[in-house]
Design goal:
Keywords: Membrane, Transmembrane, Transmembrane helix. By secondary structure, this protein is mainly alpha-helical. Helices cover about 85% and strands about 0% of the residues. α1 runs antiparallel to α2. The model has no long low-confidence stretch (mean pLDDT about 75).
């Protein structure tokens, strides 16, 4: 498994965890979930653009 594939898998896992934080009612769970979604989404887009070049 190369580094790009590993990073993509880790970002997808982070996205799924953040989405679960929205669906499972937890006090103050939405704030770190929103931050994680922003960071992971940006990382996924950046990795896809770098791979396509």
């Amino acid at each position: 498994m190369n580094a790009d594939r590993r990073d993509t898998i880790l970002v997808v896992i982070a996205l799924l965890g953040a989405l679960l934080s929205f669906w499972i009612p937890m006090p103050w769970g939405a704030i770190p979930a929103a931050i994680t979604l922003l960071i992971a989404g940006a990382a996924l887009i950046r990795s896809r653009r770098a791979r396509d070049r």
